[in-house]
Amino acid sequence: MKLFFLSSIFFVSSFAYSQIKIMTFSEAESKHLSVKQLDSLYPSPKKFFDGAADSYFKSQQAFLLSVNGQARKNSTKKDNGILWARFYVGKEGHFDYFLYSFEGKVSEESKTKVLDSLRVYLDNYRFPVKITAAYSFHQLINIGLIRQLPKGRNVISTLDDAIATTRPDTVKILALNQLELTEVPEIIYKFTEMKELNLGGNELKNANIDLTRLPKLKHLWLNANQLSNNSLTLTPNKTLRILNIQNNRFTDVPAAVQACKKLSSLWLGYNKLSQLNDQSFLGLRRLRDINLYSCDLNTLPQGINKLRRLEVIDLYHNNLKELPSSIGRMRRLQQLALSNNQLTHLPQNLRKLRRLQALYAHHNKLSSLPSSLKRLKRLTILDLNHNQFSVLPGSIGALSVVEEIDVSYNNLSELPTQMPQLKRLKKLYLRENPVTEDPMLLSRSKPIMENLTQNKTDVSY
């Protein structure tokens, strides 16, 4: 009996310990748990976890999306407000406190539902990395139907107004986003002078749009719906320039995209593109901008080189370990965004990207740069923070027009003597490197930093 009693106490105390304490900011103040006091107990050091940084940052992004999703699911269309939230995480990896305040128009019922759902979610949340120190963070959470609407005299943003208008010829933007639509309304064809149609954030599982009846349409938003590869149909056209189909259920570039002969921007982020292949990019030769953000890509097909006119490619937050050699054939590329992947090296044929102006490769596993990088004579931004560099090549001094270099959070013990040759360098970020943390190493590179400062370079560490 005594053993059972002690076990019960242990169970109850463990359960109580795991429960997050949720209270308003004013309630916390009355209990002598103000933000200032809690922040001192949860000081958020620079390093508060063990494990891959990429895993933590990806999970943090997913966490914030889930928290916002909980708020949306448990509020109504009549709600229109925000939830100011501050989260406190203990060194054991559990949420200890959640302080909050509601602003705007939010019903009491919605407040209760949102808080109850967040309590369950936070109590059961498990971090993908080991938390080693207490820390805190804040978040603004939208409650209810917060519609992002363009402003202007030539904008219609409700179905009722679309039906009622007697001057459809004056309408340039039809914003029917976030209206819980389950099908594309026929009323859109009333607006033959329309240049932008927003059907994002609805519940569309199928979309068949006859662009021959919308001869002036240039921008089409279908993001955040439930569309899949074969459920999107667009008639052949030469008018559409921008197509946003992010956050749907596509596993490949849908065939409908090829109907847009003069498409210049294609946004495909937040789709799990598991079937992406060399044929996916056929018929897209006029593309100048493609967004493949967070698409669960393990490899990038060689066929990406079919996009010969591409100027911007965004590959943030994928699982790429290398780039295809064919990327060197994309001679018009100006911005290459590779951050938050698993890259261990960059290909030598990057030298062929003579028009490249910005290279974002932070949060990878890079420890060296290709010697050919010095041929990128138009490069102005080089972002390599959160990698594994212990040295930088002297050839970096040949980047004659570079204006910003970020090598924070690496393992650099010295700076190349050629760095002061970068006469146009405006900003150099060196935070969290041995060269700035160790007094002896800092003294060795101090003359280089002073030369840079004399050249009006802002050196941050």
TrEMBL record:
The record's keywords, sorted A to Z, are: Leucine-rich repeat, Repeat, Signal
Q: Which InterPro entries match?
A: Leu-rich_rpt, Leu-rich_rpt_typical-subtyp, LRR_dom_sf, LRR_domain-containing, LRR_R13L4/SHOC2-like
- Domain (Disease resistance R13L4/SHOC-2-like LRR) ranges: 247-380
Gene3D superfamilies named among the record's database cross-references: Ribonuclease Inhibitor
Q: Which SUPFAM superfamilies match?
A: L domain-like (SSF52058)
Q: Which residues, if any, are the signal sequence?
A: 1-18
What does the entry list under GO cellular component?
Answer: cytoplasm
Q: Which domain of life is it from?
A: Bacteria
Enumerate the PROSITE patterns for this protein: LRR (PS51450)
Q: Which SMART domains match?
A: LRR_BAC, LRR_TYP
Which Pfam families does the protein's record reference?
LRR_14 (PF23598)
Q: PANTHER family, alphabetically?
A: PTHR48051, RAS SUPPRESSOR PROTEIN 1
- Descriptive protein name: Leucine-rich repeat (LRR) protein
Protein species of origin: Runella defluvii
Highest lineage ranks of the organism?
A: Bacteria, Pseudomonadati, Bacteroidota, Cytophagia, Cytophagales
